[in-house]
Design a protein that fits this description.
355 residues; mainly alpha; two-stranded antiparallel sheet; 4 strands
């Protein structure tokens, strides 16, 4: 449908019109028209919201309607597309028919580049070097005893070594778990407890090895990192309390144990443990945020807290969707046809699924 007159105007005349009206409240209509011209229309969800403006407002003309459309666009841009939220999950899920459980699996796009022989050779070389370095570090830390968080860190160093030992079986490598372990190790290595207990040498070795783990992840699994970046923009809404959200997420993760009272396949214990550890990390993060001395540090902790909460919520949502597909044989078990504006809204949708 042309914007002016009965037929579309020529390019020269349109440019004149564009310059005349741009920045004067008509920007939406300019984008709408140009989107149709170039075959890239505005999102349907946005157009639906504009179409739902009350008839009385439309009747009052552009002075009334255009500011309302501008507000709709601002809210639309601040929201996150639900498909993007699902892509940001820590991992995907598949049904294990033998054990009758849902298993965490890595999305194919995260490791498909390793089908290239050169990419695989480089990854296996880096994985073996990392495994050897972490194994040596774990043995060195064993001599310091299990004081405080040292034993905690050694446990995760061993887990990374186990993952790297199976690197050749890369289609089954849990990259999401590797990323979360790297984040946990990075967080714990900066804790006051670790700095006080380890001497400069062991602390430097720990930091160096963690940096190597992060480098391996960014070099070989950048796609897995990029999938979740959209979740960094998902905030807490007004009146949404962090501790209440964390409690709600724990309840959702706990429900995967039985799978909607048996209506969904349960989540494998080892995979649920990964989600529970991320939640435990949130508890530690919150306590450190409470003790932060600067506003900048508190804001940094808050951003990371929101990011981790959103990842947990997205992962549970994918479990719900995949599990419903197993039971019902359909892909649209959850109607993700809206846009998420807050973490609390995401949690509310997870709760609604069980009703």
């Amino acid at each position: 449908m042309p914007l002016f007159g009965e037929h579309s105007i020529d390019a020269h005349s349109w440019e004149q019109v564009r310059r005349r009206w741009q920045g004067k409240g008509w920007d939406f209509w300019i984008r709408w028209y140009e989107g149709h011209l170039c075959g890239q229309p505005l999102p349907v969800a946005l157009l639906e919201q504009v179409a739902l403006i009350a008839p009385d407002d439309w009747d009052k003309g552009p002075e009334q309607v255009n500011p309302l459309i501008a507000e709709i666009e601002r809210n639309f841009r601040s929201a996150v597309d639900t498909e993007a939220v699902l892509r940001g999950a820590i991992f995907d899920f598949s049904f294990d028919q033998i054990e009758g459980v849902m298993r965490a699996v890595q999305p194919i796009e995260d490791w498909r580049h390793l089908d290239d022989p050169d990419e695989l050779t480089a990854f296996l070389r880096d994985a073996e070097a990392l495994r050897r370095g972490l194994a040596t570090l774990a043995r060195a830390l064993a001599t310091t005893g299990g004081y405080g968080n040292v034993g905690f860190i050694r446990t995760y160093l061993d887990e990374v070594c186990n993952l790297m030992a199976d690197a050749e079986d890369y289609p089954h490598l849990n990259i999401g778990q590797l990323i979360e372990i790297g984040r946990i190790l990075d967080e714990e290595a900066t804790s006051e407890d670790i700095r006080d207990h380890l001497g400069p040498g062991p602390l430097r070795a720990l930091t160096t090895n963690i940096e190597e783990l992060k480098r391996l992840i960014s070099a070989h699994f950048a796609h897995a990192l990029a999938r979740s970046l959209v979740l960094r923009d998902l905030p807490l809404g007004e009146g949404e309390e962090p501790w209440a959200i964390i409690v709600g997420l724990r309840e959702q993760v706990d429900r995967t144990r039985a799978g909607k009272s048996g209506a969904l396949p349960p989540l494998r214990d080892a995979d649920r443990a990964v989600l529970q550890e991320v939640l435990d990390g949130l508890d530690r993060l919150m306590r450190r945020a409470d003790g932060a001395s600067s506003e900048a540090a508190k804001e940094s902790y808050a951003r990371e807290r929101n990011f981790q909460m959103a990842k947990i919520g997205a992962t549970v949502a994918v479990y719900q969707q995949r599990g419903a597909r197993v039971v019902k044989g359909v892909d649209d078990a959850i109607k993700w046809n809206k846009r998420i504006t807050t973490i609390g809204q995401l949690l509310g949708w997870l709760k609604d699924f069980w009703l």
